[in-house]
Design a protein that fits this description.
Radius of gyration: 57 Å
Number of strands: 59
Largest sheet: 8 strands, mixed
Amino acid sequence: MGTSERLQSVKAALQRATCPCVMVIASPAVEAACTQRNGLALAELLRPFGVIRQLNGSVGVPVRTPAEHPLRLHSWRLRFYTSDTMFQPAPEAADAYLRDEVLGAAATEAAVSEVPDVQELLAAAGGRGEPGTTPWFGAYRREYLRLMQFGEHETLDHPVACVLALPADAEGDLVAAFAALWRHSALPPLMQAGVMEAAGVLRHHVLVHDASGMGPEVLVAAQEKLRQLAVTLGSSCQLITINSGSGSGAPVGRRPWQDMLHGCLPGGGGGEPAAGSRPPVPPAGLGAWLSEADMSGLASFVHELAARHVIPHLEARLRALNVQVTANRRGLKNQLKSLLWRKGGSSSSSGGGSSTAGGGVGSSVGSGLDSPHSMPSTPSAAGVAGVAAPSYASGSVESHMRQLSDLALMLGDYETASSTLRLLASDTKSDKAYKAYAGVQEALGAAAVLSGAPPSEASAGYKEALHRYLQLSQANPRNREGVRYATRAVLLLTEYLRAQRLHAEANQMYMRGHFQEDSLRAGLLLEQAAHCLLALAPPHTRKFAFHLVLAGLRYDMAEQAGLAQRCYRQVLGVYSGRRWALIEEHLHDVLGRQARDAGDAPAAAQHFMAMLSCPQNTLYCQRLYLGQFMEALQQAQEQLGFPPVLELPLPAVNCERVGVQHDGQTCYSGVEARQVAPDSWKVLDAALQPALESHPSGNWLGQLGGGGSRPRLAEPEDSGDRCCCVGEPVGLDVELSNPLQLDLAVSQLRLACSWEGPAEAHAAEGGATATPAAGGGGGEAGSQQQVAAQAEQQGPGFRVCEESVTLNGGERVVVHLRVVPLRLGRLRVEGVAWLLNGAAHGQAAFAIPQPRPRKPGSSSKVLIDADRPAPGGVSFRVLPPMPRLEVAVSRLPPTLLAGEVVQCTMRLRNSGATTLQHLSMAAALGSDGTGVILGGSHLAAAAAPRAGAAAGEQPAADGALAGAAAAWPADGGGGSPGSSVGGAGLRPACTFRQGAAVFSLPPSVRLGVGQELELPAWFRAPHAGTAHFALVWRYEPLVKHEALAHRTVRFARSVEALPSAHMAARLAAGVAGCAPGGCLLQVQLHNAASEALTLAGLACHSATWRLCSSGNGSEGSALEVPPDGSATLHRQLVPAGDSPAAAGAAAGEPPAAGVTLTQAEAALLEVSRQVAAAAQAALPKHLQQQQQQQEQQRRRQRQERQGQQHEDDSGVDVVVLWRAAGRGSGPPRRGFCCVHSQRLHTAPPIDAQLRGPAGLHFDFAGGSSLCVVPLILVLRNSLAAPAAVCIEMGKGADGQPFPLGVPSWAPSTGAAGAADESLPPRADVSDSGVNAPIGPAGSAPVALAAPGALSPVRQYAWCGRTRLTLPAVQPGQVVEVPLRVAVTRPGKLALADCLVSWHYAGPPHIAGSRAVPPHHCIVEQLQPPLLP
């Protein structure tokens, strides 16, 4: 409905409310003729014909207004009421009728009807369809306005005419009969009290001819009587005929009386008879005895009554009242007289007349004109602010003014009505007759609406009326009449505002009117106020919900459960999912109690269930809510006959993050394997891919990549295409949490699954694509078909496993739930189900995010424009039975020493349904050097006892790493091979690629169903801490399947490595005692373990160096290092190209007897070396280039200075073997620590060091101002030839004098100053890797001299000679040279300006120099002793 249409509807309703009232008084005979035949009283019989569409055709009826404005009435309306029903019913009776009759059925229907959601309400509000959302409000509003008619302070409902009806066969004097009928009839109560004027009512006389009981002669006689009556009474006499129909058969045409009849109250009133007094409806319907001629006659009668009698009567009365009002109220003179008289009268005596007609001032028209004004009936009451004065007397000027305005409204003269009402408003306001004043303002608002005035003018009148009506009850709370009239003003105003689309103002008026109303009407007003908020732009959804909550509260207080439930259900659609826990809890609590009281146990259980997740409540409330839910659930089970399955919020299930554990192409062996980062597994999977080349295809098609039985690496499994095998469990990790403080018992916890049978293509794929491999594949294919056939014969497609868990208050657990597929097809896991506390069956649907679909033919690119699928469960494609490899490691201790080599057993078992082959393993090379290697193996059937593995190890020669990496020993293979393998023990082939060690078993190795394979394995963790190792086994089924060409199993373990030996090594060239071209290996070892370690030997693995024996036989002796002890090992290295005899002759030493490494230890050493190389390759490119440049520069320096010819490009691997006590009674434990890629470091021939006091105190303020510090310069010749040494003090490393401007010390208390940019910066002197910084690091800045001052001087000076020469320092000789330095002030010294130069006569001829490392000394001021 559009705005203009709704506004026209509002105006039409106001015109119906302001049309004239016609009182009907009929004799008992006439009433009996009407009610017995037609079920209607005479007034009700005439009521439908009161709507006159055309008064005088298209011309209309002219009306002479007081202002002589042209006015014509084209359509009109008359309201017919029986005289004894024209009164306002008692408030209690009216409220009971509105509550029970009007809202009773609506509330019942609202409780069970579908509640529109917010979007539907918004659409209805945008389409101006608000009444459709609450249809009961329109009926309530119409009935409420009808019951508020016939008020004493307004004359709109006063009768303007009276129809007196006698039967057509009445005998005697008709004039006397009509007069007696008037006198003895029950007039309206207000007319009996004198409020309604009886003298001004037009009396219209009617003779009623009952055609069903009177003959034609009676009609002729009645016409004659009517002519005689017209001579006496005038033209207001008519004859009507009724009941000329048969009263049987279907009614002709639509009967209009049904819409004109309203509900009856027990005491009557509001224009309707008392309840129970209305005659029953005849079998043929209302008006059954009225023929078409009768109905046409009734319409003609009403038309003539309105056009010939009522309109002229109202016109004449309107003009007469206007003359009286003009003479007494209009004009400047009358206004001044009224103002002065009213002021004096309101402050004078309180004597006045009564409220009855003729009993007070202005009781008649004539008396009212004698005085300039008429006071209220009770002037004393008018003097109280906020208290309404009683109604004005019927003959007062105020009463005439109100009649004048109301008659003008009836005739459509809105200008006269508005001017008269404004004048009357000023009088009533001055008299403080607020009830009359409010009625006048209400009429002003109606006149403004009907005349098309601006909305502000109409709203002002209604708002003022509302304010004054509410004042009546505020002054006297017992007086509820003002509240009722205020509600009427609210209903009229808000309907007009909503028609004008002023929904915000309408909301304010609804809210203002509900405060003092009773609960029922307050709920109605609040509900409409809420719907007004939805019609705003933008809609106020949250305020709408809040207003509906208030309306629901008021409905609940008024015992209107149906309407309250509807409000709360609508609010739930707004607040649900907004995390407003308190509001949702209140709503569900109210709805649950209402549903329980109504006997709807399932609905009550639903609402009480929503209150269970309330972590903010106390323990008492949580226990109370859980108890009432269980009680309601038990009642619901009794009503339904079966236990309902609910979406329980307890326990809380994380439906979005669910861990899926299924054995498709990738299997996991243990929980630790699933916790490894996916990127680590990708490296191992990629390392296994080249291993496929060792298993060639059985035909040439496979070699060309054209298919066949050649195994291929399938694409990584996507979450949208998961697969599993028949008989293998599928696990999901579901997170459960208990938000309450109560303990919850969760039993029968299981996955909710569904199964779909395979399509024909899937069936063909599952059976026809299997091709047997060489070596007995036909039997395997037959067994696979038998297993599939058996699975098909089984009933369900899956079997779920149930779990039970008890959740303490606030506890959060992850439960692993499993389902086993039994048949081919597609398994869908849609959610989880459980039983709470042994009574409530709950379920929850998974909402796992689904990926976007991929592009056709692509395994990585997704369709960006495609819509993301809705979140849901997990789907699996069930494949035929496949082999399944299980990996376990035994004899691996939980704790070990860092670097310890531990032998353990790796057990492989085929727990699947078919045979597997082509086994290969990839072990990760950890970043910390953790490594795993494999040895020989033993194969046995599952039923046969397994043979133990021998622990003997064959030693390998020193440096034989290449052979150890290429061919592995058969250690531990002492048992006889099983039935599937013949020949000697297994020798896995090993390669290193892509950051992993890859082991491949021979192609002849196969594992049947239930068979086991044991392989010896060695493990080493080089560093302390938690050591992790991960490995992947790859295998293929003997009977190939396109969807699953191969499978992998991932295994991971972690052990705790305790601290053991910490090792550091250094290769130094040019050391005394070394052979020409040789170097000295220095190894420092610290035992950080809690037990003693025995050093078994030292090994050096290099392509250019080899160890030499020390000649004293100490190589074979063991050195025990206690806990927290240290040891230093010195061994000489000679070039590997020299013969051992030559090297021994040159050094005077015998050749070394190599230290043995087992093949397992050599292999683990290779693993450590691979890790070190990978770490070096992982450095950024700029760091790698920088290291290479530095290494090349150092190599050139060594070659230039010492003539070194042997360079090791690959570096030297230094290995120290150690032993520790065995665990318990076991054998001793072995291990080793190593450092890789050690480079040759050239030591300076002359080692120099300054020694002296670290600190001293001196009194600079005493007699001497210089403090002399004694020093000793220690020199040592490390070469095998004498050297000439020169010592120079006061020079830097470049031989230049030490700059004076660079301070070499920092005063203990000195001001910080800015550095002079003109001075040279500090420099570091380095030679052969030895750095000697000039000046102390971290010293405070020194205040330098300002420009133009004296040149800076040194803060210390060397005493004595500053150049000393030692002509010959013998090989290995240590020389101590005493030196002294003088200090001028306290502070921290850094003596770094001492240069040592040397010269060797040869051979070889070596000359060079180096700066002596600085010596730091602190000189402090000596404090004087304290006086006693």
